[in-house]
Amino acid sequence: MSDCDDVLVRVFLGSPLDPAATAHLAACTRCSADAGPVRSVARTLSADAAPPPPPGLAPRVLRAAAPLLAARARRARRRALAVAIAVALAPLPLIVAIDVRLAMGGYHLLRSIMPAALSAYLVFNWTATVVLLLALTYAAIPILVDQQLRSRRFPVHA
Q1: What pTM was computed for the model?
Q2: Res 78 pLDDT > 80
Q3: Are residues 43 and 77 in the same domain?
Q4: Which of 18, 72, 98, 147 is found 20 to 30 A from 129 (Cα to Cα)?
């Protein structure tokens, strides 16, 4: 924007003019000629009240925006699910390593007091239970994320 444009915008908005802008307004023929009509237009526009929106505008706008809002909600849901799965999977190698160590230690301990076949059977069942619990836990992540997103979308107020 040029100096003229800056000065005329300030005049239009009714902003106070600094000394440099006042000097420019006095020296510039274009600005001094346009300042009066610009002030007149600004007064006319500020005196007129904004018309009320037509009835039914909000539902029409929401109906028109529904596909975009739905697409954005799907992207947000996918992103939240990806973040939740990534956070949940981060400690999984450590959990598996600890479980393997516990299974091996449990097998060696049980083998010292029981027959090897019975020790292997007990450790296998314990390992299968741990794997089942981990699978159920990780399978619940998408369900929990969906519930979190729904509770954010429709907050419950007491």
Answers
A1: 0.49
A2: yes
A3: no
A4: 147
Which domain, by its residues, includes 122?
Answer: 73-153
Does the pLDDT of residue 84 top 70, yes or no? yes
pLDDT in tens, 59-76: 999 899 999 988 988 888
Q: Residue 41 falls within a domain, yes or no?
A: yes
43: in domain: yes
Beta carbons of 31 and 1 less than 8 angstroms apart: no
pLDDT one-digit tens code per residue, 106-119? 999 999 999 999 99
Same domain membership, residue 80 and residue 145: yes
Distance CA(68)–CA(57), nearest Å, equals: 18
Q: Is 53 within a domain?
A: no
The CA-atom distances, in angstroms, between 14 and each of 45, 47, 48, 76, 90 are: 12, 14, 16, 43, 58
Q: Which amino acid is at 14?
A: G
Q: What's the domain count of the chain? A: 2
- Contact (CB, 8 A) for 110 and 122: yes
**What pLDDT shows up at residue 31?**
87
